[in-house]
């Protein structure tokens, strides 16, 4: 049997105790990591889930979702402020109070909306906050406080460890919830099951918080109030934190808007900017600093070069542009969040730090989501936030020689600034006007590259660098947008996006585009040409054939409804004696369609058109039974598919309003979604008979005819048979893939996504 000298045993004692303490700290760390991660996961899972629950009841009007966003921001701010306030009491009382708040909020389980229907004339700004606050407010508030509160507890439980690293875990959880909902939860679970899943997760969070409370220090440290020992930050430092948080938050929303408006409108694209925004926190707050520091070092160059490229908006390469925009957002978010991390206070002040961060995030969201659509007719918030990012990003010269050049003396810096301004103005002028044709056809590109070279020299300065950045953005896109703005009514913006009117004199047409999606075409000239149906609404299309068949199907006094106004093209199918009603959610579209100086379909063909403004499903729900003969659904051609208009419950509403002999036309032309299987599944379960007509432009058609897919449905097989017998190559509706019928309890666009790359092949 071997023996160990007594002295060696004594020497090993401290080492054993140190290892035991290290193991204990490691166990505490993982306990807090799991607790924070699970809370953040639930927080990002609940927002899209509640949105799905609210859509059939509240509709998709912008006032509804703007109010909802403000509710979420207010609850998040409230949770962070509550966590900060708890610092006034001892750790023991903090644990007791927070567990009590969690238990009290559990009375609202299972999570869901209250069984209350808003009145038709209810004001969304009042009704929506009340409904969401009363339905999920306590739960959202309690979970929102998790990240800052548990980090404070962790700092008290393991003083030797960095509590800010837990914020990285928090954002991993947020990212997991963000990705899990559209890709895993929504496609595989009904809303009722989602509610139960979230409620079970909430119970798990309570258990984890209780375990964290149990791990808090014992004795006097637990019972005494934790008084901050470090000096309080000044207002300038707090303002700096808020600005550093505001710009990435606003840029995340602005990137989503800019991509879908000026680059490519792809479903679920919003997930990528938000996901990268969350991952930037994980990198910026990580214990290992190499990745964050490297991205931060090259961020000014990335902002300068990629910002200018994005302003160019080259639509020939949509996915390359999307990749550049996402890279730019990620670089900005990592750089500014890294700067926040560098300016972080001591752990005893961390809740105030996170409160300031939350205020900045909320301000960025309000600016990009609420203020910008009202102030601007284009996504001007995008270049504004890029410039702000350039001004706030940490500065470091790329080469020592450049640093010595700028820092030689105050006079050298002033001269350098003046020279930079002069060179920038000259290059912008040359790029815009190319005097004397000195640079040929590529003057703009050459000037931009020269600006990039000047910008690299100015990296490390503030004013000269920002001047060059502004020049690059202005040259490569902002001035073109300003020209359209100065021209007046060419462009209109609402909460639904940017609408641009373009004239093509050679083709004698005028178009309306919603971002990158064409929403209407009209010939200019005499009345005969102006009233010709164009694009998806040709006489040989499904909707064209159905509207021409109305006198034979329903007599001279047919009643017609159309969901989606666009430029008002369908109005030119109206015949004397018929009664028409359009359903349009966006007031900006109504103003465009009624303005004879823009599009004259309504003025020429149906000057007294009845237009119901608001969510179509809610408007139809309030309509009398058997009040329409034909209803056209034309709201699914862009990336933002209003799923609540395609559910079985929505089709029941259509069937009630149409009556037994009514005819329902569904426009399913879409670059990214194959909606035919959804309609097939819903029609089969609802007793509808129908078929699909794919129209291709014919040799005798005018130049603005477009391929279109329309599905016609009726609960009376005789009506559908009579429509089919008239004309057109109607085919049976097919389900090329297995898709369940959408309902108010279940829907997902993931199963019906088309292969995206196939849409951009030559």
Task: Give an account of the 3D structure.
It is a single chain. By secondary structure, the protein is of the alpha/beta class. It contains 27 helices and 12 strands. The protein has helices at 6-58, 62-85, 91-105, 124-144, 146-157, 165-188, 191-214, 220-223, 235-263, 271-284, 290-312, 318-342, 350-375, 381-392, 400-406, 410-433, 443-458, 463-486, 527-530, 542-548, 550-554, 587-594, 601-605, 616-621, 648-658, 676-686, 717-726, and strands spanning 491-494, 497-504, 509-514, 517-523, 559-563, 579-584, 610-613, 630-633, 663-667, 689-695, 708-714, 731-732. α25 (648-658) links the parallel β8 and β9. The protein is flat, with a radius of gyration of 30 Å. Mean pLDDT is 84; it is low at 1-21 and 757-762.
Q: What separation lies between the terminal Cα atoms? A: 81 Å
- CA-atom Rg in angstroms: 30 Å
Mean pLDDT: 84
- The percent range for strand residues is 5-15%
Q: Which structural class do you get from the secondary structure elements?
A: alpha/beta
Query: Any idea what the shape is?
Result: flat
> Counting H and I runs of at least 4 residues, what is the number of helices?
27
Spatially, the strands of the biggest sheet line up as 7-6-5-8-9-11-10-12
Fraction of residues in helix: 55-70%
Provide the low-confidence segments as ranges.
1-21, 757-762
Biggest sheet descriptor: 8 strands, mixed
Q: How many strand elements?
A: 12
Task: Map the helices and strands.
Blueprint: H1 6-58, H2 62-85, H3 91-105, H4 124-144, H5 146-157, H6 165-188, H7 191-214, H8 220-223, H9 235-263, H10 271-284, H11 290-312, H12 318-342, H13 350-375, H14 381-392, H15 400-406, H16 410-433, H17 443-458, H18 463-486, E1 491-494, E2 497-504, E3 509-514, E4 517-523, H19 527-530, H20 542-548, H21 550-554, E5 559-563, E6 579-584, H22 587-594, H23 601-605, E7 610-613, H24 616-621, E8 630-633, H25 648-658, E9 663-667, H26 676-686, E10 689-695, E11 708-714, H27 717-726, E12 731-732
Parallel strand pairs: 5-6, 5-8, 6-7, 8-9
Antiparallel strand pairs: 1-2, 2-3, 3-4, 9-11, 10-11, 10-12
